[in-house]
Amino acid sequence: MRTKIALLFAVVLGILAVIGIQAYLTQKDKEYEGKATRVSIAVAREQLRAGDVLKPVHIDRREVDEAAVTDMHILYDQARPYVGRQVTQKVPLGKALLHSYFLTPPEQEEFAAKKIDMSMRAITIGTDQIAGVAGLITPGSRVDILNTFRIATRGPESAATVVTKIIARNVEILAIDSRTDVRIPVRGGRLARGLDRGYSSVTVHVTPLESALLTFAQQNGKLSFALRHSEDMRSGAGVPPVTLSQFDALVDEAAQRREEMLRQRGKRSTP
Q1: Which terminus of the chain faces fewer neighbouring Cβ atoms within 10 Å, N or C?
Q2: Domain range enclosing 254
Q3: Residue 3 domain-assigned?
């Protein structure tokens, strides 16, 4: 009898917890919607096929959060210059209209080339689900690039020890596969679906020396990406190469650095 009462009590508590969480999330959604700045973007009122000429009747207005809009989105008030132009790819009903949908292949190449700064280079790197931060990288993201490879050594290391080191820091992502825009579908100001997790390559914006290092690294080891905060412009220097013989010591050092970072963060937040 006591067991049944305890089980019933646990079920009731679980239901109350779910209700409480849902109420909390609903409240947070309302708070977020109240703070968000809204803008109007142009979306397709009906499905457009590649080669269709855009007409005023094809354009609809949608209010979305400003944070969901990229420089590739066409604002509703700026859509008129695109009327009379052909779309270069299929645009589903309700899809946001993007500048890139109206570029001819030569214009696309010119547009992509102009995104590369003078004295910089663009290089494409193969990736997968794990190395690519589970699909969280988008054009415009900034990453550190790590290389894991084997080297022949003597002494306490094995004959072909594994080493991991950061070879490029604070690198901008120019494209995911062939996409140079985020292309996040929006519905009522919210993300309509998750991020595209199926990409197989990323194109990065690097110096000539970094392009040579990355080309070499691709042929001789495995590359991985560490996603950075978009506003974190610190170099991140001071991270030593990781090897088997140093691994335990570096684990301890990493824990100390984390504790110190959290301590400093706590001091800044204390009034």
Answers
A1: C
A2: 245-271
A3: no
Of 93, 99, 84, the closest CA to residue 52 belongs to 84
Amino acid residing at 156 = P
* Residue after which a domain boundary falls, among 114, 139, 170: 114
**pTM (predicted TM-score):** 0.52
* DSSP secondary structure string for all residues of 134-154: GGT--TT-EEEEEEEEEEE--
Judged against a pLDDT cut of 90, whether residue 209 lies above it is answered with: yes
Residue 112 confidence class, pLDDT cut points 50, 70, 90: low
Residue closest to 167 by CA, chosen among 200, 123, 117: 123
Q: Give 179's DSSP letter.
A: B
Tell me the chain's radius of gyration from C-alpha atoms: 25
- Domain assignment present for 223: yes
Domain tally, the chain? 3
> In DSSP terms, which residues pair with 73 in a beta bridge?
98
- What tokens were used for 32? 């977020």
Q: What is the mean pLDDT of the chain?
A: 75
* Residue type, position 99, single letter: H
